[in-house]
Amino acid sequence: MPKTxxxxxxxxxxxEDLLSFTDKAEGLAAFIQSCPTPMTLxxxxxxxxxxxxxxxxxxxxxxxxxxxSIKIETWKFAxxxxxxxxxxxFAAEVYQQ
Length: 97
Fold this sequence. Notes:
By secondary structure, the chain is an all-alpha fold. Helices cover 36% and strands 0% of the residues.
């Protein structure tokens, strides 16, 4: 069975880069570290496409002394029925980190 056969069966970031994201993660981390202003990034893709793995790889490459990161998992807000309550929940998540 190929090594990548079970790749999309878990929501846990991969410990091994089976999707060949390392070069992309290094490039994104270098861009983040060289950017003089604060920024917001979103990693989008279907379930099992490697979003969590990509985020983990980027975070590992960042210099923690010069970059402050906040990881928000937007799926956590899917249960909020009233759209107007989402900004407060989002702000609370940022504040907790």
